[in-house]
Amino acid sequence: MTITQLEYVLAVAKYRNFTKAAKHSFVTQPTLSMQIQKLEDELDIKIFNRKKKPIALTEIGKRIVEQAKIIVDESQRMNDIVDQQKGYIGGEFRLGIIPTIIPTLLPLFLKIFIKKYPKVTLIINELTTEEIVNQLNNGSIDVGIAATPLENEAIKERPLYYEPFVGFIPENHRLYQQGKLTAEDLELDEILLLEDGHCFKDNIINLCTSVKHKTHKHFELESGSFTTLIKLTKEGFGMTLLPYLDSIELPESDRKYLHEFKSPVPAREVSLVYHKSQLKIQMVEVLKNCIDSVVRGAISFNDVEIISPLHK
Question: Are residues 97 and 74 located together in one domain of the fold?
Fold first, then answer.
């Protein structure tokens, strides 16, 4: 049994196809198939049911894959230990970022990071908070960027910045002529929200403690896009709240709809999160420092009140 054989097993389990698994493993399909067959012969079991389309794991195969993930992950940590000792900044680094942060934060630091650390292969995925936590726990990603706190003992959190909320209010709304907002001004049933799974929606629900004066709503909408919420707000279907970095990217013609909050300004905490057993600490530090350097100039609010997401 070899680590390579286990890696091939994991590839087939992921892609459910020997040809695709071989392509992503950078070997020929006969070579991959032969090595998996050798492993099956050695263990005297069948890991895959090749008669099914797509290929399926056998019951014992499912248990083999679970153990293979642990073994392969631990073997990779040997390289992490050596890199840590040498202070080497390079290799593959897998990053997950939640959808409400990736469009505004990633463009701020990506070019700078790539230029400064050319030996690092940064693999970025857009993931929900729940997916980030799950993938940190199973080793599929090295680090995540999410709204915190997560309240998970296995996950370490390193705050990056505190992003204020900004009101986006149409001219026909009762709050349009008002100056700065307070949380008490908000009515949850008037606010257009992101769909379930977005922690920014949970931030807003947590912020809106007052739900009195409910009115009859002619429609209900939950969108996965701030762009959609902004367009509907401008059409007079309600108001919405935006993260600060999204608000500064609006065209000048839309800035008249923006309303800041009175101090202390409600804000979300955005953190770098990673598993407590993470060994690529140098990578974590350089990524944090890179993001710190670009965000410090973009967000300068000091007196903020952190609104926690309602993590389930």
Answer: no
